[in-house]
Each structure stands twice: as structure tokens, then as C-alpha cells.
Amino acid sequence: MPELAKTPLHTQHVELGARMVPFAGYSMPVQYSGLLEETKATRATAGLFDVSHMGQFWVRGKAALEEIQAITTNDLNRIQVGQAQYNMLCNPIGGVIDDIIVYRRHPEDLFICVNASNRHTDFDWVKGHLKRSTLTDESDETALIALQGPQSEAVLMKLVDPSHLALKYYWACESQMLSRPIYLSRTGYTGEDGFEIYCRAKDAPTIWDTLLDKGHENGLVPCGLGSRDTLRTEMGYPLHGHELSAEISPIEAGLSWVVKFTKSFVGDSVLKSQVENGPTRILKGLQMEDRRIARPGYRIFDGNSEIGVISSGTFSPHRNAPVALGFVELRLKDAPQFEVQIRGERSVGRTTPLPFVPSRAKR
Amino acid sequence: MSVPEGLHYTKEHEWVSFDDNIATVGITDFAQSSLGDITFVQLPKEGDQVKKDDPFGVVESVKAVSDLYSPVTGRVMEVNEPVLKAPELLNEDPYTDGWLLKVETKEIDMEGLMSPDEYTDYIEEQG
Prior knowledge:
The structure holds two protein chains of two kinds.
Chain A: E1 5-6, H1 10-15, E2 19-23, E3 26-31, H2 35-44, E4 46-50, E5 55-60, H3 64-69, E6 84-90, E7 96-103, E8 110-114, H4 119-129, E9 134-137, E10 142-148, H5 152-157, E11 172-177, E12 180-185, E13 194-200, H6 204-215, E14 220-223, H7 225-234, H8 268-277, E15 281-288, E16 299-302, E17 305-316, E18 321-329, E19 337-342, E20 345-352
Parallel strand pairs in A: 1-3, 4-14
Antiparallel strand pairs in A: 2-3, 4-10, 5-8, 5-9, 6-7, 7-8, 10-13, 11-12, 12-13, 15-18, 15-20, 16-17, 16-19, 17-18, 19-20
Helix pairs in contact in A: 2-7
Chain B: E1 8-9, E2 14-19, E3 22-27, H1 29-35, E4 38-42, E5 49-50, E6 55-61, E7 65-69, E8 74-79, H2 81-85, H3 89-92, E9 101-104, H4 116-126
Antiparallel strand pairs in B: 1-2, 2-3, 3-9, 4-6, 5-8, 6-7, 8-9
């Protein structure tokens, strides 16, 4: 196995007593105090997440917007400079190469945040479609810290220009923290109000330590990938490799709102046909009736027929029950319940509208 | 990591204590800590037979599912019902309130069981 990469905050994690696990080629903290405790803290007060493993690209040049429009499903003309947009890179069969956030960070240039595990694939794919723009991968010089939860704004009030906290959901601005440049984005993966803070890798330890220190009285705690996964699953947010993949389309994953046919893009004809004729499978949320967790790969049944598969599952503290996401055949999209095969036994999962927890992101 | 005296330990991270021919079985502090938040426990019923080194139940945390292996052969005399209702007891107190089974054994078979010192060395090797 190749040696694991470390984020700029590796020393911090070890000192905080985190349990480190391999993830996307990085040694990452999966938990500090406890997965469920961190999940609850993020919903009650605030959580701090190191997501520096994620990748950041710049697409620069006068043609950047036009060239990225041709390989993304959402319409970047619907946002202004200073705004961010959830978006997808699709292949010609409508499968998702990656789900990304595109920032109109500059009048011409675009800043893109991508998943760690897809960083190199994305880079090659995007590069292959650019003729007049330049693409740079600045992931190694960039750290990303997510501050999430209802106390996030109160914590930042102590550390950044308060006027910058007027940012609305999916807006971002150039800012400063401790005299160091940051790019402050009101985005996240938890369903709570919160921010994602892009900073230089070399500044990350000081920023992380100071946030934890100043945020302590607000109930801010460090949170690992375990709670991050539970928080996003409670929101029904997709994770690439689970709800999205090169073989799964955004329409199947219930993300048709990210697909706009006001422009043409790679994959659009397949996606259009899926919208018009219906995809063969669709993502549903299930709340389990007993305490067993339905995990990725577990088979879903309707009576004796196998009709789907679980893509993600966790224990939801908010619901005090296991919850799961899974794909089922389209004809069963309105079924009230399914059975999931868990270690040779069947558990009932009630179909539940997503999200499992109401979003409190600041609109 | 807590490894109390007076208990015997398995490579699968269960503990067992003997009181005459009654064995009390549970999981170790190392096991609960590795699993993280435990959300589900499945155990045999009173009167069921368990066999040394065979799976007798399941503990499940948010992160993982783990089989439980019996350190003894015998008949289940008592199941710790509160643990089934509140699996977090295993995280909070794996050695006392979080016991799992009381098993009536015909003979005390110590083969494969480790002393506290041996188990402490064993978990250190496991990292």
C-alpha cells in the first residue's frame, strides 16, 4: 500500500486523540470524542471538520465559464460572481464523474472544489475539455476547514470582519482570519448553518487551533469523518461512490434540480431521456423499524423480489433509529415500505421523505 | 485501556469470569472502544446452547458489525436484558453493567484464554 498522505492538520488530529483511518489516500480523523456525540454537537452547537483532503482547481481565462458550462450539468449563468453552485461532471452516458462545487470567485476565473478520491480523474477529464482556458490543481497548497452548526456565526464573529458574515447560503467572499487570507464560503455538508473556510495549507494549523480555542465557549468540538457521514446521510446528501458514480446518473439519485437543459453539456441527451421516460431506479430514504443498520450493498426486497440495494446507512441520533439511502426500481417509488436483508434476516424499512432532518442552512 | 484483574480474555476481545460452573461473558473495553457507539446487540435466548469459539451474537456500531465468539461451551442461564434495550451500556461499562450472558458450563476449559497481562500485551500489538 502506498504511504498515506497527511493533511496540514495531521499533528492537530493526533494531539487531539483522534482515531485516524485511511480515506481517499489520506490519513484522516474518523472520530475524536465519539461519532454520535460529535453528530449531536454539530446540530446543537458547532463542529469543526478538517476536509483538507478535498481538491481545489482553478480554471482561468476569458473562456473559463463557457468551457466549464460544456461539461457540467447545472447552469453557471444562473449564479453571479461571488456565488457558489452545486454541480456535476457527467460522462457521455450521464453517469457522474464527480459532484463538485463551482465558485464564480473572479469575474472570469472559476474555483472548483472536488472530492479527494476523484481529484486526479477530474483533473484529467476537465483538462481534456479545455481549449482556451488553463487548469491548475492547487489542492496541496490549500486547506479546507468546515465550521458547521448553529453557533458557527457566533464563533466567526470573533475572528473575521463581521460584515462578511452577511453572506447568504452558497455565497462566498475573500476574507481574512488572524491576518491570513481566507476564502469564506457559506456552504456545508451537514444541513446546518455553517461555513467552509479555504486557507493556505501553511496557515491551517493556526486557524484550526484558534477556531477551537475561541469556539470552545460556544460548544465547538472537533468532528471526524464518521460524524460527517452521519450528518450528510441524515440530510440525504449524496456521497460519490455511494449515491453517485460513473454508472449512476443525477436523475436516478434524485438530483434533477442540478441538471439544467437550458444549455448543452456532456451527457445531456441521456439525462434528458431519463427525465422524459423515467430512470430505471430511484433513490429512496428508509427509516428502519429495528435497531440494525442497513449498510451499503445490503439487498432490498419487495416481498420475494429483490428490487434494489442500499447505498448508505447509519444510525440517526435525530430520529433515534437507523436510517438508510438506497436505490429501488422506479415502479416502486411510492411503496410505503421495503424489507432489507441484514445478515440473513429481513428488517423493515419505512420509506421516508428526505431529508431525515429538516435543513437549517441559512437561505 | 482498562483490563481488569480476575477476568480471562479471548483473541476476539471477549472476557469471561468463572464462579464455580457459571461463566459470565462480555466484551472488553478495547472492543467497545474500537467499535465506537454501539447501537445494536443481538444475543441468544435463555436455554440456548453456546459453543466455545463459535459465534453467539452480534454487536453493531455506527461504523461496523462484529460477531461475538463464545469463550465457553454451555447453556445460557441468563441474558442481560438491559443491554438489549440500551446497547450504549456496552460503551459505558463493558465489565459490570454491560455483561452479556451467564452460561452454565460442564467443565472450565482455559485453553486459548489469556490472563490480563497477556491480553494487555496482545492489544498493544494490535495497535
